Amino acid sequence: MLNLTGKNALVTGIANNRSIAWGIAQQLHKAGANLGVTYLPDEKGRFEKKVKELVEPLAPSIFLPCNVQDDAQIAATFEAIGQQWGKLDILIHCLAFAGKDALSGDFSNVSRADFTQALEISTYSLTQLAGAAKPLMTEGGSIVTLTYLGGVKVIPNYNVMGIAKAGLEMSVRYLAAELGPNNIRVNAISAGPIRTLASSAVGGILDMIHHVEEVAPLRRTVTQMEVGNAAAFLCSDLSSGVTGQVLYVDAGYEIMGM
Ligand SMILES: NC(=O)c1ccc[n+]([C@@H]2O[C@H](COP(=O)([O-])OP(=O)(O)OC[C@H]3O[C@@H](n4cnc5c(N)ncnc54)[C@H](O)[C@@H]3O)[C@@H](O)[C@H]2O)c1
């Protein structure tokens, strides 16, 4: 029943083989989706090379740079989708950033620059990409973003990213309400802690993972592929009645009080 054949899916946020977006891309591909992949460009082209090699087996038909702080790159990405695909069915928003200084110590020390940057990249970008996707989702669609419990409850060192994720989860609800009449669904997956490039910037991430392994009902944390499975569900007709939700894929950790 989980068949995404004929669906065009844009996946953002692949940096390497540990990325959650990489787990999602593999599962969407397995379900038959035609993939487009964007990467964060850097001056030396390192990300481009690395991501290109990684995603080659999934044969993405679109592969473009897209820094979400660059309006021109966003416009070029969606223009290419319009020209090459005609329509978009799935948008995976799987990116975030905050300066390392803002991810440890006292939250009240966060600078205006770090605060603004974290919310621009990690929160505003969902709304911006969803707005660009809307006119291309002519047959309805599914938008999925990635969040974390630190946007709902206080997690040591998550600090400004918690504020960003709280805003992201509320953005999901406002976008779901706006886009629902177009049959575009918008949901978030709240993943348990996983070792990735982004999470390694959060102070004490390994302690967080060990704590989850001790306390979560399943006595472990989750894998990128498990998050990918949930994303494939949220992008398929199996979840056709679900929008505006945050789905916890965290081995059950969120239900625990102690
Ligand atoms: N790893 C975890 O424990 C965890 C848990 C819950 C939620 N998440 C969320 O999952 C998402 C993916 O993170 P990840 O853990 O896979 O780490 P990751 O480092 O593999 O992915 C983060 C991605 O964000 C991209 N990015 C950063 N700034 C960007 C910009 N300006 N424009 C475009 N892309 C940009 C990076 O290139 C990278 O691909 C993030 O939203 C993160 O907050 C992660």
From TrEMBL:
Pathway(s): Lipid metabolism; fatty acid biosynthesis
Reaction(s) catalysed by this chain's protein: a 2,3-saturated acyl-[ACP] + NAD(+) = a (2E)-enoyl-[ACP] + NADH + H(+)
Domain of life: Bacteria
Keyword Transmembrane helix: no
Transmembrane segment boundaries: none
UniProt-listed CDD domains: ENR_SDR
Active-site feature positions: Y148 (proton acceptor), Y158 (proton acceptor)
SUPFAM superfamilies in the cross-refs: NAD(P)-binding Rossmann-fold domains
GO molecular function: enoyl-[acyl-carrier-protein] reductase (NADH) activity
Pfam family, one: adh_short_C2
UniProt EC number: 1.3.1.9
Binding site for NAD(+): G13, S19, I20, L95, K165, I194, R195, T196, L197, A198
Residues holding substrate: A98
GO biological process, one term: fatty acid biosynthetic process
Keywords attached to this entry: Fatty acid biosynthesis, Fatty acid metabolism, Lipid biosynthesis, Lipid metabolism, NAD, Oxidoreductase
Family: Belongs to the short-chain dehydrogenases/reductases (SDR) family. FabI subfamily.
Family annotation (NCBIfam families): PRK07370.1
Name assigned to this protein: Enoyl-[acyl-carrier-protein] reductase [NADH]
Taxonomy of the source species: Bacteria, Bacillati, Cyanobacteriota, Cyanophyceae, Coleofasciculales
